[in-house]
Every structure is written in structure tokens, then in C-alpha cells.
């Protein structure tokens, strides 16, 4: 897996793609692809992003992320990126002029020889710097700049906001289409329960980072992957129950339960990746545990049909 580094730890010189890149959707990947084609000077393809999100520092707007930094590493590695650099976004950085930002952060700290950004990129104090300013400042420093136009889907641009809207409605296929890849999230196992003797599945409770953006409540057909095997094709078909957490003391906004076939070698603390595929139904209350288990069995059968799995698998 590629390294996650601070600006001080970054390998130099760099060809950098700069932005929040939340979701790493198709438009983001088009920008990132440009820094791999730098043949003038040997440089390290690097994605530069900010943590926390600038809106959190400037406006107190707590924004949930489509991708946590650690989740981005595998995705970026598959795109040919060699390092992810997180620049701490604080008041000092927010108050840098556009000229200071390019010179101090991109040139001095990262040794940038090439910069790729989207057409809507803004930088510097109060977002006063635009792509025209970037081109002028970079030219004075001998840095090449690539500006990519927004990628559209029909009459609308592909954006992280559109992906969030789709997930909020449980429209997993639409979110996946806009992303150009499966939507997924990671979580660690907190407990494992065998439901009943006659049942052939276990309930696994997951703890997910509270800063992660999740789909709407409901029961989903999902693929489950082990974190250490995320780059392989190995996956397990299952269902996931996602609902808002009732306890205000929880670190997560949601309770996430995954129902897996029994005889899987899993243990508390193990990290899993969940890839929702389809919203089977909304959450509902059941008058008894027996009826709830009966419905779960039906949900698993529905999930197997959606995922194209036979019961013998």
C-alpha cells in the first residue's frame, strides 16, 4: 500500500494533483491521471489533499467524507500514485495568500515540478486564487500546470455532492455509476453472534469511523472483503442492516450489522470492507425475534439473487 505522509515526510520532487478528491470519482481520476504523464523531469506522482476539510476550519461545517484517508490509499495505488500527502488545514494555512501557498507549500515543501487541478480549483486566503493566478505564479517558479475541465454526465457535472444525494436515497447503482467504481467503507468487528442453531449465518457488528458518509438506513445486499485482501477478487456475499444509533455516546452515528454465512474465520478486531450493492428494503420493527429471523432469512435469499450467488456457494 502506498504511504500516507505529511508535507515534511514527502519524497521529492513531485508531480502533484491538488484537491479534496472526496470519493475519487471519474472527474477526480482524470485530474490525477495527468500527473503520471510528466516526462520532462523525473518526479513522484503525488496526490495532495487537506485534513481536516477546509469547511470544518473556516465555517465549522462538519463534513462527512466519502473516503477516509486510509481508504484512499489502495484506490490511489491502483491509479499509479506513489504517495498521498495530507496538508494540515489550519488558520495559518487558511491565511496564506495564493502566492504564498504555491511558493511555501507546493514549491518549497513538496518540490512540485508539475501541478494538476480541476477547473474549479480555488486556493489562498478566502479562496481568492483561481486557475489563472495559479498558472501565472507557477510559471514564475518554473512549474508546469495542467487544468482539467469539469467532467459532465448529461447536463450535470459529476460531483461528490451528486454521489452523496444518491447514497442518501439508497441509490447504490447511481452512486457506483458516478464514482466509476464500487462505493465501499471499512469497519472493525466489535462482536460476532451466532443467531440460532437452525440458522446458517452469524451476525457481525461493525464499528465505522463516525466521519464516514454512509447510505440511508435500510437492509442491503453487500459484498464483504477482508481488509488485508482488498486488492484480491475474494469476497463474501451477505446482507447489511444499517440504522441510526440510539446512543448519543457512541462514536458512530449508525449501528451496522452484517449477516454472513457461518463457518467464516472471523474474529473481533478484524477490519472488513463493505461494498453495498442494492437496497433490499427499509428498516422495520418486528413483533418477535422469530419473525425478525424469518425476515433476515428472506433478505439473505434476496441478496443471493441480487449478487448472483447460489446457496451452495
Automatic annotation (TrEMBL):
Pathway: Cofactor biosynthesis; FMN biosynthesis; FMN from riboflavin (ATP route): step 1/1; Cofactor biosynthesis; FAD biosynthesis; FAD from FMN: step 1/1. It comes from the Eukaryota. SMART domains: Flavokinase. Keywords: ATP-binding, FAD, Flavoprotein, FMN, Kinase, Multifunctional enzyme, Nucleotide-binding, Nucleotidyltransferase, Plastid, Transferase. One of its GO terms (biological process) is FMN biosynthetic process. Belongs to the RibF family. This is Bifunctional riboflavin kinase/FMN adenylyltransferase. It comes from Paulinella micropora. The gene is MYN1_Chr_8.
